[in-house]
Amino acid sequence: MTMSQNQKPVILVAGAAGLQGGAAVTALLAKGDFAIRAIVRDKNSAASQALAAKQVELFETTFDDLEGLTKAAQGATGVFSVQMGSHPGNQGEGTRHAQNLMAAAKAVGVQQVVHTSSPECLDVPHPGPRQVGLLIAAGG
């Protein structure tokens, strides 16, 4: 099992500055068994700095950067993934972003992935979450 410097398994959290990802970070930190690494767009944002104050490791990248996502996933034993759905004009963006994160996790041997998405939670008809679910079920 891969461990961080403090000898705890590392969980990579995508969406850590949002409601779902933030709740996952809070729960994981409260349990005390894990080191948390968060994917952030801007390490200097107020939300990122709030995570850093909780001893969360920040990794700055985007979901379009497969190399950056792969580096972020390196050494993690698990991934908690929150993906937003596609916005008008960006059809398929949410699915593409999730596919990139799953490919990165698979490339470095992440053992477990938990994926959720906002459109799916709101029961909004959207093909992306189903496609991502099928991708995960197929192992990457």
UniProtKB/TrEMBL annotation:
Record-linked InterPro entries: NAD(P)-bd_dom_sf, NmrA-like, NmrA-like_oxidored
Record family assignment: Belongs to the NmrA-type oxidoreductase family.
Extent of the signal sequence: none
Domain NmrA-like: 8-118
Gene3D superfamilies assigned to the protein according to its UniProt record, in alphabetical order: NAD(P)-binding Rossmann-like Domain
Keyword check for NADP: yes
Protein name: NmrA-like domain-containing protein
Coiled coil: none
Origin species: Hymenobacter glacieicola
Lineage: Bacteria, Pseudomonadati, Bacteroidota, Cytophagia, Cytophagales
UniProt xrefs under PANTHER family: NITROGEN METABOLITE REPRESSION PROTEIN NMRA FAMILY MEMBER (PTHR42748), NMRA LIKE REDOX SENSOR 1-RELATED (PTHR42748:SF7)
Domain of life of the native organism: Bacteria
Keywords: NADP
